[in-house]
Each structure stands twice: as C-alpha cells, then as structure tokens.
Amino acid sequence: MKTLEEIGKLAKAAEPALRVLNTGKKDQALLKVAEELLAKTADILEANETDVIRARENGMKPGLIDRLMLDESRIEGMAEGIRQVAALPDPVGEVKAMKQRPNGLLIGQKKVPLGVIGIIYEARPNVTADAFALCFKAGNVVILRGGSDAFHSNQAIVDVIRGALGMEGIPEDAIQLIQDTSRETAQRFMQMDQYVNVLIPRGGAGLIRSVVENSRIPVIETGTGNCHIYVDESADIDMAVPIIFNAKTQRIGVCNACESLVVHEKILDRLMPALKQKLDEKQVEIRGDEKAMAAAEGIIPASEEDWGTEYLDYILSVKTVSGVDEAIAHINRYNTGHSEAIITSDYANAQKFLNEIDAAAVYVNASTRFTDGFEFGFGAEIGISTQKLHARGPMGLEALTSYKYIIYGNGQIR
Amino acid sequence: MKTLEEIGKLAKAAEPALRVLNTGKKDQALLKVAEELLAKTADILEANETDVIRARENGMKPGLIDRLMLDESRIEGMAEGIRQVAALPDPVGEVKAMKQRPNGLLIGQKKVPLGVIGIIYEARPNVTADAFALCFKAGNVVILRGGSDAFHSNQAIVDVIRGALGMEGIPEDAIQLIQDTSRETAQRFMQMDQYVNVLIPRGGAGLIRSVVENSRIPVIETGTGNCHIYVDESADIDMAVPIIFNAKTQRIGVCNACESLVVHEKILDRLMPALKQKLDEKQVEIRGDEKAMAAAEGIIPASEEDWGTEYLDYILSVKTVSGVDEAIAHINRYNTGHSEAIITSDYANAQKFLNEIDAAAVYVNASTRFTDGFEFGFGAEIGISTQKLHARGPMGLEALTSYKYIIYGNGQIR
Questions:
Q1: How far apart are CA A243 and CA A229, in angstroms?
Q2: DSSP letters of B256-307?
Q3: Backbone dihedral region of B84: left (phi > 0), alpha (psi from -120 to 50 degrees) or beta?
Q4: Closest approach of A313 to chain B, Cα-based (Å)
Q5: Which chain B residues have a beta carbon less than 8 Å from that of A363?
Q6: Which CATH fold would you assign to the domain B4-221+391-408?
Q7: Are strands A258-264 and A339-343 parallel, antiparallel or unpaired?
Q8: Closest C-alpha among A223, A258, A224 to residue A242
Q9: pLDDT per residue over A382-399, tens digit each?
Q10: Percent share of chain B, pLDDT over 70
C-alpha cells in the first residue's frame, strides 16, 4: 500500500504529461475507459458484491445499500457518462483577452488545468468514474479518497481506468485511489497542499463541514441547499402551486429541492388552501408561522429552527412576510447560498429579488430544481458550489481549470 | 473596543447595502475619501508620528521605518491612488453568457461582489487606503487587520475613510479595523468563515504561510516569487543581458524580480562574461554551478539550496542545462508559480516554454518585472496570486468579484 507521500509524488510526476495532453488524445482515452468498464463489468460487480455483503453485515440502511449497489445497467450508465464527457468541448488552451500593451507586449489569459485535484466522497461508487472523467478531460490528475463501504468497488473501477490509460500510453497515475480509508489518513490528506491544488468534498453536510474545517488545501464547498421560494403578492396562483409542488416533491433528497416557502401576507389566504391540497398528494408536512396556520387546515407550528433546516424530506416550512424587502432579508439570513426563487408578476419586485438575493442561482417564476450542470447546459457537473471563490453554482469542466498569463515580447524591460 | 464577533456582525450588516450600491455613488464616495484624506493630513501625520517614535524606541530597522513613515507627499499618493480606482470601470453587474435554454429559461452569469473581504497585512499604512479603495469599488465590505507597528496610522486613516463614507450616506462599517493587534486575535479572525468570504494576506512569506496554514476562511495566496529567466541556445545576447539586468536589479525587493538564471550550456561561454560585466555595475553576486563558474571569472559556487531561494537581494543563481526540456523541468521544480521567462529566437522553444511552464505569468523575450496589475492594464492591483484557484497572477478589481446565475422563467418545472 502506497503512503500518502508516495501518492502525492506520483500525482505530481503525472501532472506535466496531463497538462499538455491534447483534446483528441484525452477523448480517445475516455472512450477506451468506457469500453473497458463495459468489458470488465463482471470484475466490478464481483468487487461490488463484496462491499454489499459487508455493508449488509454491518447493518447499513437499505437506502444507502441501494446507493452502493452496482448492476449492469449502472455500469452502462457510468460508461455512457464518460462518453458524454468525451463529447464535451475541451476548456483547456483557450486564450482570452489577448491585448497589445503600449510597450508592445502582447498579453493574454490562457486556460490551463488546475493541476492535482483531490476528491473526498462517500459511498456512491459511480462518483469514482464521474469525477475521474471530468478531472481528466480538463487535464487534471485526480486523487480519490472514497468511503470504506465502497472500497472494493472503487478499487475495481480505478484498476479498470488505470488499465485503459496504460493501453493509451497515458500515465496511469492520472488517477489514484487512497487505499487507507481511515479517518486519520483523510485528515493527513487534507494537509497535503504541496501536492494537491484543490479539494472537492462530495457527500453530506457533515463530510463537507469537516473538510472545510480541517483542510489546508483550498476547498470548493458544495452541496447543502436550504432553498426558498418567495410567493409575491402579485403571483399567479396557477403558476405558483405547480412550481412549489415540483421544487418540493420531484426529488426530495437533493440540494436544489425547496425547503421553505416565504409568502406575502396578502396572498396567503388564496395560496395556502390550493397548495395544501396539492401537497397532500405526496403527504407533505407543512410547518408554518401563525398566519400560515390560520390560512389553511392541517398546518403544524414551525419553530425558529425550521427556518434554517434543510429537511431533504416531505416537509416544507412556511414563513409569512409583509413585502419583498422582508422576504429578501429573511432569505438572505437563512439560505445556504444555493438556489432561491420568486413567483411574481411584478416587474420591479422580480428585478429587486434578482439583484438583492445572495445565492448561487436566483430564479424568477421557475422551480429551484433547475440548478444543475446538465440543466444549465454545461453537459456535466462535478458538484454545485455554494461558496463565492473560484466557482459558484453548478461546476462544469471550466470550474476545473485555472489560467495563466502568456506574454509575447521582443526585448521589453521596465 | 469591539469584539471580533461584533466586527463580523457589523460587516455582515453593511454587506447588503454595499452589494447594490451603484457605480456613480461608489465613485463619488471614493472621491470624497480622497478629499478627506488630504483635508485631514495633519491628523494622519500626527498619528503616524506616534507609531514612528515607538518603532524607533523598539529598535525597528531603518528600511522598515521608511515603509512605516508617512509624509504629505505619501498621503497625496494615497489620495491619488483612490482617485485612480474611482476612474476604473466597475466590474459589478456585468451579465455574461446569457442564453436561452430549450425549455425557455433564460440563464446568465452576473458579476457580483465577493461580500466581506479580510486583509491581514504588515507595517505599510498605505495598504489601508489601497485595499479599501479596491474592495469598496467592487462592492465589498473590508475588515482590516494591520500590524501593531502601524496601529495609530491605520486607525487615523480608517477614521477618515469612515467619516467620508458617513458624509455620503454609506454605511461606515464598509471598512473596519481590528483594534486588537495580538497574534491570538489574528488567529481567531482566520476562523471566522461565517462572516468573511475571503482572506488576502499581504506581506512577507512568513505571514502568508501562517495565514494559509491557519485559516478556515478561503485564502488567496500572494506574493512569493522565485522567478527564473531561461537563456536558450538561440538567444540574442544583446537582448538577454539587458533583460536579465533589468529583471534582477531594477528593484530587488519585489516578488517579480529575477532570482535565478537557467542557461543553455552552448551559450554559456558567450553569455556569462558579458552578463558578469553588466551585473558588476550593481555589484550583483553570482552563484553558479561548475559550468557557470568556468564560463566567467568571479562566480562563486551555488548550493542545492540556492535553486529554491528568493533572495530579494543583489544575488543571482545560475544553473546550466543541456536544453529547453531540462530547463522547463528545473523551473517547474523550483519556481513558486509566479513569473518565468525564456530568451530565445527559436519558435518551437518559445511555444514549448509557454505551454509547459507552470506559473502565473510566462514570458518570451521580456523582463519578469512586468507582472503587475498596472503593467497588465488592470489600473490597480490588490496583490499577485501565486495559487491557481479563483485568481492567478496580478489581481485587479475583477478578482474581487464572484458571480451568481440569474434565471428568468415563465413557470418552468422539471
């Protein structure tokens, strides 16, 4: 088993070759990886079975076992995802804003890979292939630290990818898996800023918080979403109800699901009965303030804690406000910087909401569920950034690049 | 004296007003700040004298006292710097890449302020005004933590700025100075990621390292530069010597000064005598490997340690290589990701060097001294980033912004 130090050095050694790999070669390698994943399906499923058996013995919950388990169609899905990344345009190499300075220097900003990317993730083995494909297409080396529950599955997938890279004459260390899945090793990994340029945690809020607090490597924070929809006085109820129903119930466990409704007091009596009836179809529990409770039957009282809670469940909180300013102040206080929407037919309130809400994605008259790399047209995503530095919102290939200035001179001195 | 917690809350409270301040209002406030700095010159100089007297008593070195000391012309310089920032275009509000998706959603990327920026810096009081002007113009709130040596000067400058903001009806807490200059308070400040979006250290390598190691807030690393010039076999000696002389001696204490020369062995005998003669004008000490020592009189031996040293002094190391590949490998091993140059007349080697060197700025046939926000045409700079995340190289106003997605819909659901 390699030490973290050895893994870091091997990653750094592979980096220069990856940095200059041309798009054709990268795409060819990705297609080979997809092909090999399909060819080695039996090996991967065998390794996955070992993980699943152990997880069952350890009493893992069925929902988590479902995330862990692979079958032929899931491996086909992985391979298809990799083919899709191969088909995306390569961000690396584009030169922007090249300008001639008064002294004759020609200065431009060239897009380059970030270098070495660390990914810390939990029990979903498909992240292994996804994360590799995106990092690789943008010319980066990746070091993966998956959860112990998926260890054999991750190892099998990484072995297949490394084998495919080897066949294409590309350094296999473009992808490495940390085999020691202990907590201490994860902690030490987060200190390796001499080898790793950026760390992206993918998983629950606890994992992400732990990485942010302990990492010396720059982190891109992803994922948690306490998303609001504000229903303005002027909203069309026939538009508001389907949007809220969609944002709350279309998929409950995702970060762009709506968790909290903010409602103008003057539309409350018209909105709540219709909304309650619709949400009852999915047995959504509504927790409201006093005014909301008075507006429809069957709403239970919300506590202060509800305003800040990402339920990831069939639960919705409802806060009443007297206008758009109070709505914006409430949302800016409790949101997690993810996705926020206003339903309105008022031009000024729409523009005010777009301007003043502090979040990665701000919507007028649409469901928050669209905050997603595919829906935004990026073709893929490595996560949804809820921080402001480097990348914000859905991160596609471009978020996995940096830039350098290239300068053409003919003897200039200062 | 306010606690850090109070300072953080006041910054957050000021943030929404700053976020939506229009350009005209910001520029007017900056001009008022410049005017007030000039009007209150006597107060600032008096406070500065207190710092200087104490620094002398504490035995501060004359070079550092010079950096600390203010006079009328330096305060005029501060005011002029602020006026220049007022004249720059405002990056905030630009919407890029707005596109209609197949479902009719109109999605665009809007440039917004970062939010609250922390600056930790050492004994130069002019940073107080500079950093404020740039952060403010980009719509950000700034919390400053200056060194104890400049405390009275910083406080006087901050008082003047806050007063001017108040006259313009802008929240004075757009700028706050941490009055407790103890190390423990600085450490606690670096943990305040609930209030501060990004931390930018400005100062020596020790300060920057300490911030990177201790901060929970995302940091933009700036400053250290072990910059190389590679003299290719095909270089024009008459171009190489002035560039090297300029990059090494025009200003020795700056991060874009050349610290190390990498020379093709086939040009060594022609380059070194002419170079040595020129560098002797400024008594530059040359430390070389064996081949370099053999090429000219008066070169002293370099040790392994020299290759990794940022001298910030009249010292230059010289490493001999057998070709451009070895030069690139050497530079990528020892550089700090700042500025690197090749002197060549060979097209392929120029392109290879631009492609393969991993640094913020890569030059062909020009001095490394041009890596600077003003020289690059940004009008100003808050520092030079040597990391790859968010911003790389000279950071102008744009580096002090983030973006958010704004989405116009008409009832879209998923």
A1: 9
A2: TSEEEEEEETTTHHHHHHHHHHHHHTTT-EEEE-HHHHHHSTTPEEP-HHHH
A3: alpha
A4: 18
A5: 407, 409
A6: Aldehyde Dehydrogenase; Chain A, domain 1 (3.40.605)
A7: unpaired
A8: A258
A9: 999 999 999 999 999 999
A10: 100
Spatial distance between the Cα atoms of B229 and B68, rounded to a whole number of angstroms = 33
Distance CA B79, CA B32 (A): 10
Measured between alpha carbons, how far is B98 from B5 in angstroms, rounded to an integer? 39
A184's CB contacts (< 8 A; 6+ apart) are none
Interface of B with A in 179-238 (CB under 8 A): 193, 197-198, 212-213, 216, 218-220, 236
Running DSSP on this structure, what letter comes out for residue B375? Answer: T
B375 touches chain A (CB under 8 A): yes
Single-letter amino acid, residue A169? G
Find all residues with CB under 8 Å of A3, minimum gap 6, and list them: none
| Segments of A33-149 assigned E as strands | 95-100, 106-113, 116-121, 141-145
What's the pLDDT tens digit per position in B233-271? 999 999 999 999 999 999 998 999 999 999 999 999 999
Quick one: B322 exposed, middle or buried, by C-beta within 10 A (0-12, 13-18, 19+)? exposed
Which DSSP symbol is given to B222? B
The closest of B312, B309, B333 to B321, measured between CA atoms, is B333
Going by CATH, does the domain composed of A227-370 fall within 3.30.1360.120?
no
What the block records as the tokens of B174 is: 């757009």
pLDDT in tens, B310-359: 999 999 999 999 999 999 999 999 999 999 999 999 999 999 999 999 99
Question: What residue ranges do the domains of chain B occupy?
Answer: 4-221+391-408, 227-370
pTM beyond 0.90:
yes
DSSP 8-class letter at A274: H
Q: Which amino acid is at B402?
A: S
- For B387, phi and psi rounded to 5 degrees? -110, 175
**Helix, strand, coil % in chain A, rounded to nearest 5:** 45, 20, 35
Question: What is the token pair recorded at A140?
Answer: 């980066």
Please tell me the distance from the alpha carbon of residue A342 to that of residue A240, in angstroms, as a whole number.
9
Nearest Cα to Cα of residue A291 among A307, A269, A260: A269
The single-letter code of the amino acid at B130 is D
Q: How many CB atoms lie within 10 A of CB B300?
A: 10
Q: Specify whether the CB–CB gap between B323 and B331 falls below 8 A.
A: no
Q: How far apart are CA B30 and CA A49, in angstroms?
A: 65
- B35-85 tens-digit pLDDT: 999 999 999 999 999 999 999 999 999 888 998 999 999 999 999 999 999
Which sign, positive or negative, has the C-alpha torsion A232, A237, A238, A241? positive
- A265: which DSSP letter? T
**Structure-block tokens of residue A184:** 């201490």
The nearest alpha carbon in chain A to B17 belongs to: A356
| Residues in chain A closer than 8 A to B365 (CB atoms) | 408-412
At A189, phi and psi to the nearest 5? Answer: -60, -40
Verify whether the Cβ–Cβ distance B405 to A360 is below 8 Å. yes
Q: Which residues lie below 8 Å from residue B304, measured CB to CB, with a gap of 6+?
A: none
Regarding an ipTM greater than 0.90, the answer is: yes
**Closest Cα partner for A116 from A145, A142, A90?**
A142
- Give the separation between CA A250 and CA B171, rounded to whole angstroms: 43
- Where does the pLDDT of residue A57 fall: very low under 50, low under 70, confident under 90, or very high at 90 and above? very high
pLDDT at position A379, please?
87
Please tell me whether residue A253 adopts helix, strand or coil conformation: coil
Confidence at residue A123, expressed as pLDDT on a 0 to 100 scale = 74
> CB of A332 within 8 Å of any CB in chain B?
yes
Q: What is the mean pLDDT of residues A369-385?
A: 93
**Residue B46: helix, strand or coil by DSSP?**
helix
